[in-house]
Amino acid sequence: MMNIENELDAARKNALRYIITTQKKDGSWSGPYSSRLRETVLANLIAKIAGWKEISQATETWINEHPEPFGVSELELALNTALLDILRRKSLLIPHEQFMQRDLVRKYLMIYAIGILLNINFPTDTQQLVAKILTRIEEELKANTTLKPWARSEFLSFLIICCDRDDLIEELLKLEGDSGSWFNNTATTAIALLSISRHQRIQFNSYYQFFKENMQQDGGYSYAPIENWDTGLTLQILAEQPDQDDIISKAISYLELSQNPDGGWGFTKATPSESDTTSIVVRALQILGEDRLKSKALNFLKSVQFTTGEYKGLWPVWDQSEMPSIEVVAHVAEVFSHEGFDVSHAVSWLTNKVLTDSWMPVWGRSSAYAASAILATIGNKRARSIICKHILSTQLKDGGWPSVHGESSNASATGNALAALRLLDSPEQKIKRSGMEYLIRNQLENGTWPEVREVVGPRPYSYSDQMSTHYFALNPLLL
Question: Which family does the entry's similarity section mention (predicted)?
Fold first, then answer.
C-alpha cells in the first residue's frame, strides 16, 4: 500500500517546483495551451502570405498530423469537421441549424471566410444565407449594439472578406492593440490581417513576434493566452507557502501593470475587464493581504453588479447583456463574503440552481469545478447534500473523477472533487484517499499533470490550460 504521507510530500514539492520554474520573466504564468484546428489553420494562412517559413512548416505539419476532427461536444465536432472538409474541398459547408444562433454564428462565418480565402465556390443557397447574416450583422454594428470588441473586429473582417467592404478597414485598424495583435488573440488577429491584405499591403514583419510567441510546443496555435487568470490562480497557491516572497512580488508587479484603469482584469492583456478573472485575482490578493490593488478591483466588481431585475445582486462575466453563470457568480460572491458584504441574493440564486438541478458550469466542463465554487459560498444543507451525493457518486474505479459523465478520470476534475469534499467536511476518508492516490500516481516527472481539455472559449471550442490543471490538481494536496 502507498505510504500516503511520504508520497504526498514528494508530490507537493515537485508541483511547487513546477510553479517556480515556469514563472515568466514578466512575473506571470501562462499555459501552455492545447493547439486547435481553426487557430492553426489561420496562422498557417498568414504564414504562407507573409513568407514566414518556420511557422508555415510547423503549422502545416500540425494540420497533417491531426487528420481527424476533434470535439468534446457535438457542435465543436461539427465545426471542426466543416473546416477540415473545406481544407480538403470535400464539402460545401452545409450549415448546422444551431450555428445560426447569435453566439455561434461568428464561428460559422469564420469557417465560411476561410473558405472564401481558399477560393471555395459555395453553392448559391449558402451564399444567400451568409449574405442575409452579414446584412443583419452590419445593421447591428451600425446600431452599436453590445458586442465584445473582438467580436466586432471579426465581424468587420468577415464583411471585408465576403463582401469586399474595404471601406471598413479603417474601423478595423482602430481596434488593433499596441502589442502587434487584435486582443492578443490568434484567430482575431489572423482574420483581421487576412482581410486587410486582400485590399492593401501589410508590413507583416510587425506581427511576426506575436505569432512566434503564441505558437504552442507542438507547432499549433490555441485560443488567446489567459495569463491574468493563470497568475491569479497560481498566486492563490503561493500565498500560503513559505519563502516565496520574491516570486510573489514579481507576480504582483505583473498584475499591477496588467490591471485595467477601471480596476479589473481581463483574462489576457488588451482585453476589457471581466468578473471571473478579476475575482480570481482579488481572492489571491485577499489571501496575501495585498490591499493596494484590491480596492480598485472591488469597485469594478461593484460597478458591474446587476442592481435591478431578475438578476439583482448577481454579476455577469463581461456586461449586463449576458446571463450570469454559476461559477462566475460563485467566485465573485466568495470574494465579497470575505469583505463582509451582503451576498444573500447570490447565495439564494446559487442555492436555487442546485435545488432545481441546474448548477452545471458555463466556462468550464467539469461538474466538480462548479461544485467546489458553489460550496465555498452556500450554506443550505439540502443543496450541499445534493452536491455531496453527486461528487460521491461520480468517482470512478481508479480513484479519480471525470469532467463529465462517460469520460475518463483526469487530474483537474479529481482535484476539484477533493476540494469540494473538504468544503463539505465529508467523512468519506477512503474516497478522499483514493482520490489523492490517483493524483500522486498520475503526476508527471516535471511536477505537473497531463493536460485536460476543460476550458471553453469561445463557445463551443474547448482547450486545455496547463496552469489551471496544475492549480486544480495541486490545491487539495496542500489542504
Answer: Belongs to the terpene cyclase/mutase family.
Cell of 391: 461528487
On whether the CB atoms of residues 156 and 118 are closer than 8 A, the answer is: no
Instruction: Give pLDDT tens digits for 8-32.
Output: 999 999 999 999 999 999 999 999 9
* 186-229 pLDDT, tens digit each: 999 999 999 999 999 999 999 999 999 999 999 999 999 999 99
Fold of 4-31+227-478: Glycosyltransferase (1.50.10)
Neighbouring residues of 401: CB distance < 8 A, sequence distance ≥ 6:
366, 368, 391, 394, 395, 409, 410, 413, 414, 416, 417, 435
The C-alpha atoms of residue 454 and residue 199 are separated, in whole angstroms, by 39
pLDDT at 479 over 80: no
* Contact (CB, 8 A) for 369 and 412: yes
- Cα 69 to the center of its chain, rounded Å: 21
pLDDT of residue 207: 97
Cell numbers found for residue 462: 474547448
Q: Where are the domains of the chain?
A: 4-31+227-478, 37-214
Taking alpha carbons only, the member of 476, 479, 394, 393 closest to residue 439 is 476
Against a cut of 0.70, is the pTM above it? yes
Residue found by looking up cell 452590419 in the block: 138
pLDDT tens profile 59-95: 999 999 999 999 999 889 999 999 999 999 887 666 6
Neighbours of 390 (CB within 10 A): 18
200 and 172 in contact (C-beta within 8 Å)?
no
What pairs with residue 410 in β-bridges? 401
